Amino acid sequence: MKAIQVFALTCLAGIVSAGVYTDRFNIQYNKIKNRNNGYFSPEGVPYHSVETLIVEAPDHGHETTSEAFSYWVWMEAVHGKINGDWQAFNNAWDILERYIIPVSASQPTNNFYTPNHPATFAEEKDQPNDYPSLIDSSVPVGEDPLHQELQSAYGTSDVYGMHWLLDVDNVYGFGNTPGQCEAGPGATGPSYINTFQRGPMESVWRTIPQSTCDSFKYGGQNGFLDLFTKDNNYARQWKYTNAPDADARAIQAAFWASKWAQESGNLGTISNTLSKAAKMGDYLRYSLFDKYFKQIGNCVNAHSCPGGYGKSSAHYLMAWYYAWGGSLDTSGGWAWRIGDSTAHFGYQNPLAAYALANEPTLKPKGATAVSDWQTSLERQLEFYEWLQTPEGAFAGGATNSWNGRYDTPPADVTANTFHGMFYDWEPVYHDPPSNRWFGMQGWSVDRLAQYYYVSGDSKAKSLLDKWVTWVLANIHIEPGKKYTLPENLQWSGTPPNVHVEVTKTSSDVGTGAATARALAYYAAKANHQQAKEAAKEILDIMWWAHQTDKGVSVPETPDSYHQFKEPVYVPPGWTGRYPNGDVIENGATFIGIRSWYKNDPAWPAVQKHLDGGPAPTFTYHRFWAQADIAIAQGTYGILFNE
């Protein structure tokens, strides 16, 4: 194995002294920040992955997500703690604000928004081929209690939240750069796009990516709108979707940056960035509300379940999304906003809620924001408690809108509800089931463990005691050689009798890093030696066994790439085009509407697979996973001074 350079660190007030794990952080950090390794675009935007041919939630490696931005901000916070350099933290937020939070010109008609009628109802359907869905103005909706409060606090009707997806290299060619609407393939820089708008069975392979700013220049006669909604007429419009777990992670990172910068006397250096994180947390409250601001609890039948008023439409959980949009016509415009009725345990972030309710440097300006986040913190902890299995793992989540259309749930689900919300073992998406992946456990429980480390909350400790016992029993370690973690989970029953079974294991480095960090935070507070040793072994093994020139990674053989030929439902008679000329019509396939993939250097390996050969193997460097590894190594060093 190549010798690995060890970086000497200066021991200053508030800066961590040199150690094995903080040295590893610096090594990994420098690999990620090395421009020759391909993690960042020319504009400084982090790609989803170094490699371009990768299909997950993003359908191309040189797209990016708000998730990647949030991991970058977090990594820079750890960098500031270890090295005393806080400018990189500020710079990460500046680029985040420039490219993935829509500027005012990119959300131009918010001033027409009417909070007493936030949006018009449309059913969520079961299958992509059930779309478009009728927009139904006869269904009652509630009022938005946040808009006026936020407008008063910030002097604008714009929303300060990250859109979840960017086409960083403008591969699709929409050209929705900041302030530009469908400038086309010649536009340079990151372009806003969206996918996933046709129900829980719309896997990435069945999506029709669309422009976030639909001027009818691309797509069909009505742009892309009539693929998703059925209306009497269609107006040119813009729309964005927020992934609340990413915004919350960025706020969580800001919390640590605040604590660490205070320790070293550098708080003033990042105070402006912290105020922006607090502002993001103010708007993040939209994720705490039902999709159409209907009452929370026993909300069955879209027509008879009433709209909520005040905070009666708040479930106070971190939902899967919130979204906002409006018309492009600024002379007689309109705008809309929605929350989300469904909450996944994996999106909860009690540390972010705690920070927004308690940390003075992150106090939002909204008049009721602090009390909302305090309520959310309490509700999230209760949610974990309700969803915890006897084994210790956490089950899926809950919804206020069964089937996404306020249907009547089955009797076994209505028997035990959460504040009147219904248990869902696979919230939001079903292909694959949303709580099958073990990574949701590591991600969410890491945040719970950080909250416990900061607060000492006995309820959090009780939840962690059970989870740590379960996860330690399902981690298999050959000291110095190999570790395996759960990868896929299978669920049965309903609360309080939900059970879990591990059906597949792996040596994944991203989930390994998150799990190790969860164990480390728990161990540091609870003085749990076994958890500390397991975290140390995972971090040591991944570091020495899985080094690459660009980071830390293991080869993987995706079992889904035969779906490049997957049919993509387009209604009969509907025809449209992408900017590059790819035709969207009935009979389309995933690769058929992404013909540019055939020019990718990795495409021949996929083509051989489609021709009947074995599935190809790739070594991916996902930004979130590589940053997570750096953060986990550095955190272990910070916690234990090793």
UniProtKB/TrEMBL annotation:
InterPro entries noted in UniProt: 6-hairpin_glycosidase_sf (IPR008928), 6hp_glycosidase-like_sf (IPR012341), Endo-1-4-beta-glucanase_dom2 (IPR023309), Endoglucanase_F_dom3 (IPR027390), Glyco_hydro_48F (IPR000556)
Signal listed as a keyword: yes
Annotated GO MF terms: cellulase activity
Signal peptide: 1-18
GO biological process: cellulose catabolic process
Alphabetic keyword roster: Carbohydrate metabolism, Cellulose degradation, Glycosidase, Hydrolase, Polysaccharide degradation, Signal
Protein name: Glycoside hydrolase family 48
